[in-house]
Specification:
Elements: E1 6-8, H1 20-28, E2 36-38, E3 50-55, E4 59-69, E5 81-92, H2 93-114, H3 121-124
């Protein structure tokens, strides 16, 4: 498994998949083709249902984690949410912009296939008679 590598015809960090036709078009436009090998030996998977962002002059900081009801709330009659941060991703602004564009493409494709995603939970909530 140590020698397990995957190849992809895309720019590192770009996140956008390229077909063979895209690569040929890039060559015709005077752009060089780049072969990227992916090494997933140190890959770990995390789930997040919440995030927090901050930034410096050079970087975007993305904290990922879980929103959950706080079991150790001081006043049990007053519900409290705990944001348990599990991962921090630090990106330069160029990589952050490529991430935003790539996520936008994935969301657009998903909504074209399955319908619009409503981000306001109150508007998604269905009331039962």
């Amino acid at each position: 498994m140590a020698d397990e590598k995957k190849e992809a015809g895309r720019n590192p960090g770009a996140g956008a998949e390229r077909s063979q036709g895209d690569a040929q078009g890039a060559e015709a436009a005077g752009q060089r083709r780049l072969r990227v090998q992916l090494d997933e030996r140190n890959l770990h998977t995390s789930y997040a249902n919440a995030f927090r962002t901050s930034s410096t002059a050079e970087e975007v900081i993305l904290d990922l984690g879980l929103n959950m009801q706080n079991p150790a709330a001081v006043d049990p009659s007053q519900p409290e949410i705990l944001f348990q941060i599990t991962d921090r991703i630090i990106l330069n602004f160029y990589s952050a912009k490529r991430l935003v564009l790539t996520l936008g493409q994935h969301i657009r494709r998903h909504e074209e296939q399955f319908g619009e995603l409503e981000v306001d939970a109150d508007r998604r909530r269905r009331t039962t008679p």
